Amino acid sequence: MDFNTVWTITINVLLVIIGFNALVIVHEFGHFAVARLCGVRCEKFYIWFDFWGLKFFKFKWGNTEYGLGLFPLGGYVKMLGQEDDPGKIREEIERAKAQEQGSEPPQQDSAISAASRSSSLFAPDSYLSKSVPQRLAIIVAGVAMNFIFAVICAAGAFMIGVKETAPVIGSTVAGSPAWQAGLQTGDRVLELDGSPARTYRDIQMKMIGGNRSVTLTVKRNEEEKEIAVSPRKREGELAPMIGILSCPSLELLKLKTGPVDPQQERFYDAESLKKLKANFRAENLSPVFVTKIKGTPVGTFAEYQDVLLKNLDEPQGEYDDPVTVSFSDGTEAVLPLVPMRQIPVFFRMGPIAAVMPGSDAEKKGIEPGDTLLAVDGIGAVLKEDGSSGPDRIDPLRLPQTILRRVNYQLMHNLPLSLFVDIRKKDGSRQHLEIELTPDRSLPGFSGTSMRDTVGSTALGLTWEVEPVIDGHLPPPKYKAEDAPANITLPETGDKVTGIEFLNCEPFFNKMSFCEKTETGFFLHGIGEKIGIPYIFTFLLQEVKPKEGKTLAVRLNLESADGKTKVLDLPVHYAAEYPNRWYRPDRGLLLQTQKTVVTAKNIGDALWLGTERMISDSFVIYRSLQALTTGTVSAKAMSGPVGIVWLLYYITSQGMSEYLLLLCLIGANLAVINILPIPPLDGGHVIFLLYEGLFRRAPNEWVQVILSYIGLFLILLLMVWTLSLDLACIPRW
Fold this sequence. Notes:
This protein is α+β, with helices and mostly antiparallel strands. It has 15 helices and 33 strands. The strands form eleven sheets. Strands 26-27-25-28-29 form a five-stranded antiparallel beta sheet, with no helix packed on it. The chain has a four-stranded mixed beta sheet with strand order 2-3-1-4, covered by helices on one side. Strands 8-7-9-10 form a four-stranded antiparallel beta sheet. Strand 26 (514-516) and strand 27 (521-523) form a beta hairpin. The longest helix has 35 residues, at 3-37. The chain is elongated. Residues 101-119, 314-320 and 379-390 have low confidence and may be disordered.
């Protein structure tokens, strides 16, 4: 590890420590400052906790002891007469009484003084001797300082300039609410329910809480459209989603390894790979953009994608059909076709899960629950070369094959349609001609959810994939490296009950459907907690083989007669088979499309900072509301470890991102602290409001009991979130 790396890590760690403790200091300083203004004796002001008297250092200034405790869990201000520990509330009240000096007459704070406990019972500089408004001010001051701190942090970020993801749709997940609503690649979201959408984050924040319709005003081809979409939470998911992904830009992603996925470098020729990596020397900090593909100028990702789709796999082209790309620095490189990883079987087509509203498929009466039996000319009745083929459909590869058909028909001015055979829910069959929609979405699996279905926007359908073997792929052109010469293939109809990835790096932390093994990881709950599409169109493509090892897949199978067996299958690349299947991104990594929001002046920065603080405050409010209603799973929560790790990650992204995260955490801590739960600040506020309303203090035993209940809930929450952070409890 070189000096620069060590220095960067050290600075990031220091910023995390400073940021985390700044959140604590400003909160406690709020209590401290207002308490001193009200004449309350503050006996201790500690950063971190000094349990059992353990501390790094302490010093006394005036009548206050300042110190740094040994336990980095927050901080506190100790005022005479004020106590958060339920076990010491009565003891602290008695101590405040014992220190009463009798040097001042009872104060007539307000009309409630005579009815409430007399201030003469307590020392004049104790918290309990002050009026209800004064004590409310002391308690609320901590939360107020968190809000002020959040505004200042956000304002500072906007003065620097905040680079955020642009509010542009990159792609939609087949079958998702966004897909059904008709959102498309390249749509720029202008407004959300009439409010401006400056960033992609605005879209995400609007969806928190979910299950209500949101109207998006989008710009598509210079035309504005209003599209209503409702977030949806499916079984097994942590939160509601609309099923969109952010849009890449044409800027190459800056990585030490270069802008090509390291696992796909093997398909690149040496000269192109050298040119691409040369742009990413450490001293070359200027961005590099894609400007042309096969000589066609491109200015947006949608245009770039359109050209890639047309050259996805020309029907009569060679397997290594190249695409030449020009870059803004004057260099050119060849992007090869990058095949998908595949095992030599395919799975059974499941029932149709969703039908796109307004599509010809819907007009022809196709419904969820029907089943696709055959798609004319696309891996079913006919092979791609026109010869007879097996009466089977590979449901995972079908979306790309349909897209190739669409491109072919467009290139040759043929009618955009195809024939499908459907088995209806009642068992009857239909032979239908379906008009296709020109599709500009990349045919791949997003990996956003482990239960996403597979689908085709062109066809207007999505379908389930059952964990049942439905056939074998034709013999490959050549064997996978080090693959066994003779392998035993599963039988048609065998059900997959477990899948183990062999000779690979573990992909997951602890999950309810995953177990680490000596050679990789094992998946169970197939078809229930994790679907076949996620496993083979996303996970199999991303998993990293161990160095010097050959990736393989072990299937746990159950036959129709109930017998079980285990078979190991080699992993091939799809180009090795006659029926081709390729990664549409060709292994090239692009930066997410960004937009920069910069304040014009200090006033504008404070305005933007206040907006951001209010937005962040409502995030936690809506999240808590969603948690209580079950809209968001409790497993979506993060604890102190998760917050620290997030702080470290964001710190490495830049100062403005760091300040915005402090704003988010500060606002969230303020909202949580003001919840009406003893011993949080909100619990003290409730006790004080009771005292102000009924002109008497709450019964001490009631305070103690409620404080114990509140403390138990807080500790339970801490244990829960820490267990999630440390993967003691699986999130899925």
